[in-house]
Amino acid sequence: MECNHWIPKLNVTLGNYNMTYSFYVMKVANTNVVLGVQWIYSIGKYTTNYRAMEMEFQGQDGKWVVLRSMNTYPPKPVSSQRMEAVLRQGDIEWSIECLVTFRKPPDNNTQHPVDIQALLQKHERVFRDLPAGRPLDRGFEHIIELEEGTQAIITTPYRHPKRYKDEIEKTIKELLELGYIRSSSSPFALSVVLVKKKDGRLWMCIDYRALNKKTIKNRYPIPRIDELINEL
Q1: What pLDDT, in 10s, does the model give residues 48-97?
Q2: DSSP state string for 70-90
Q3: pLDDT at 102 (0 to 100)
Q4: What are the DSSP E strand ranges found in the chain?
Q5: Which is nearest to 67 in space by CA: 138, 10, 12, 15?
Q6: Which of 17, 56, 161, 209 has its CA 20 to 30 A from that of 221?
Q7: Best CA proximity match to 162, nearest among 99, 70, 68
Q8: Residue 196 contacts by C-beta under 8 Å, 6 or more apart in sequence?
C-alpha cells in the first residue's frame, strides 16, 4: 500500500479522549483514521468488550478511558419492504445478499399414477405445451381504455441484484424467441418484479398497479345463481 504523506503529532479526539499521534496518509476507502498495533502498543494494557463494543485503558494522566462504538444496537432482521425503502433513500452505500442453497435430491418418481396418465392423454390438447407465436385472430382485439387526459405512465424500475437481473434478461429472451412478446417503442413503462415460488424458482411479474388506477373498469351485471341453475 502506497503512502503519500506523513503527519507528525496530529491532535485527534475520540469522544472525550484527546491524544497526539503521528499518522501516515494512504488511500483507504471509506476510512478516516486507522489506529494500528503501534497505537495499541503505546497505551499498554487494555480490555475490550465486543458485545458492548467498548474498549477501556489507562491514559497517560492515569485516568481510565472508555471508548465506545457509535452504534451499540444489536443486529436485527428487517423486512424486504423496509430494506427497499432504505435503498431508495440512498442511506446504504453497498449491500450483500446471502443465499442459502442446497442440492435438490433427485426425483425418482417422475411417473404419474395410471388414472392421471389416462386423464392427461384424454385431454392432451389442453395439457400440452403452449405453441410458439401469438394466438389465432378470433375477431376481437383487446384494448386497454384509459381515463380521459391520462398521460403516459412511467414507473421507476426496482433495484435488483445481479442474479435477479440475469433471470429477468433470460425470461425476456425466451419470451421473445417464443413470440409471446415483441419489441415495443410505447411511451408507457412499468416495473418488473420477481416472485419466488415454493420450489425456489423465480417468476417474473409486471407491476400494473399504476396503470390499473387509470384504466376504465369494465362493469357487467352479475347473473343470479338461481337463474343459472334453472338453465342447466
Answers
A1: 888 888 889 988 888 888 888 766 556 677 777 777 777 777 666 666 66
A2: S--PPP----HHHHHHHHHHT
A3: 61
A4: 3-14, 17-26, 46-49, 54-58, 64-68, 192-196, 202-206
A5: 15
A6: 209
A7: 99
A8: 202, 203
d(CA 196, CA 191): 17
pLDDT (average), residues 208-221: 87
For the cut 70, the answer to whether the pLDDT of residue 19 exceeds it is yes
Taking phi over 0 as left and psi of -120 to 50 as alpha, with beta for the rest, 122 belongs to alpha
Burial degree of 60 (CB within 10 A; 0-12, 13-18, 19+): exposed
Show Cβ contacts of residue 8 under 8 Å, excluding neighbours closer than 6 positions: 22
Residue 211's CB: how many other CB atoms inside 10 A? 16
pLDDT score of 224? 87
CA angle 183, 203, 137 (to 5 degrees): 45
Minimal CA–CA distance to 97: which of 120, 72, 117, 80?
80
Which among 23, 10, 18 is positioned nearest to 59, based on CA atoms?
Answer: 18
Q: Which triple of cell numbers denotes residue 4?
A: 503519500
